[in-house]
Amino acid sequence: MEEYHTWQSFGNSHRFSFCQYPFVISIAAKKIIIQRDSEQQMISIARQSLVDKVSRRQRPDMNMLFLNMKVRRTHLVSDSLDELTRKRADLKKKLKVTFVGEAGLDMGGLTKEWFLLLIRQIFHPDYGMFTYHKDSHCHWFSSFKCDNYSEFRLVGILMGLAVYNSITLDIRFPPCCYKKLLSPPIIPSDQNTPVGICSVTTDDLCQIMPELAHGLSELLSYEGNVEEDFYSTFQVFQEEFGIIKSYNLKPGGDKIPVTNQNRKEYVQLYVDFLLNKSIYKQFAAFYYGFHSVCASNALMLLRPEEVEILVCGSPELDMHALQRSTQYDGYAKTDLTIRYFWDVVLGFPLDLQKKLLHFTTGSDRVPVGGMADLNFKISKNETSTNWLPVAHTCFNQLCLPPYKSKKDLKQKLIIGISNSEGFGLE
């Protein structure tokens, strides 16, 4: 942090700082810098709210120190959008979530649940904001024109809040999304400066639409007469709500044939249209949403692939590493129940291992530092062995009754991790 503050204070002067050479800093160290920077911003903004309240001779209230989200599960997207719009000035405070009608207190677990459910709804194909590409297993921005792009801003705010509050999300964006998100890494002072525009190639397109990228590569390497055999012009066609619309890639493009001489320009304009121009308003709203929370010089230290790791964590589950780093309360790792537990979990298929991770931590993704960073704990639950396991997602803690057989433990554990939506208080 001393290095980071030196770099912030002296910028591009001749004073040396490792932050001038971010490629030598590990992603784990960068994560610590971003977390501490976020914490300092949270404290500063909370302190300012307190000072403002006292200066107006009003009684301070603990709630004013947090970004308090109160949402109904049945109206999750609309309630979240309303709350974030009304509380725009509080985005840099510590996030706390309440589900209306539920008794759960948010010590971190409800926040994770809110992120998970909201992301699941927003990215559903019926919602129409994002298109899922089966070939690449990723989402991309829908190019459909609309009157209001506020929901794209909401997704950007969500991603920003996740990074700001150190929560991993199950979002499947292609790598070029994060390249665009850092273009530029700091919001430009001139509002007319385009944002989210970066140089793109067929390699970027291949990460989203591999078949189309392959077709364009074939066009570039075609040895015959492109104009006569392909009969294409500098024009693209897109279906929008059942209607085919045409767009010129350059002025008068519908009258300019694609030839062997200009095919490179055609391919470049086509890729730029798909990944930049056709979704400019959608991505700009997303960009401003993300940076409204994550406006920090620390972002300048990150490469696009590092932003992706911070947002999404790692999908690779190493249950042996989790076993090695697990802490116990009331149990010893040699106890029969614990041996049964790890025999069962290590034998689970991947989907059940992910459910267990989600059940106990609120997310099925692994943070930047690996399984050891979860601080996973198994506690003895001195209750009847007829009970199911209980999880405290705020503390990544699993409360396990002392089941007498491996079969009973496996049955109860599968029931528990497969039916785990909603919160209550013991």
SSE layout:
Blueprint: H1 2-10, H2 27-55, E1 66-71, H3 76-86, E2 94-99, H4 109-122, E3 130-133, E4 138-141, H5 150-164, H6 175-181, H7 202-206, H8 210-221, H9 226-230, E5 235-240, E6 243-248, H10 263-275, H11 280-294, H12 304-312, H13 319-325, E7 327-329, H14 336-347, H15 350-361, E8 377-380, E9 390-392, E10 397-400, H16 406-418
Parallel strand pairs: 1-2, 7-8, 8-10
Antiparallel strand pairs: 3-4, 5-6, 9-10
Helix pairs in contact: 5-11, 6-12, 15-16
In short:
By secondary structure, the protein is α/β, with parallel strands linked by helices. The protein contains 16 helices and ten strands. It has a four-stranded mixed sheet, covered by helices on one side.
Write up what this structure looks like.
This protein is an alpha/beta fold. About 45% of the residues lie in helices and about 10% in strands. The chain folds into three domains: about 1-185 and about 280-310, Hect, E3 ligase catalytic domains (Hect, E3 ligase catalytic domain fold, Alpha-Beta Complex), CATH 3.90.1750.10; about 200-280, Hect, E3 ligase catalytic domain, CATH 3.30.2160; about 320-420, Hect, E3 ligase catalytic domain (Hect, E3 ligase catalytic fold, 2-Layer Sandwich), CATH 3.30.2410. The strands form four sheets. Strands 7-8-10-9 form a four-stranded mixed sheet, covered by helices on one side. A two-stranded parallel ribbon has the order 1-2. A two-stranded antiparallel sheet has the order 3-4. A hairpin with a 4-residue loop joins strand 9 (about 390) and strand 10. The two termini are about 40 Å apart. The mean pLDDT is about 85. E3 ubiquitin-protein ligase which accepts ubiquitin from an E2 ubiquitin-conjugating enzyme in the form of a thioester and then directly transfers the ubiquitin to targeted substrates.
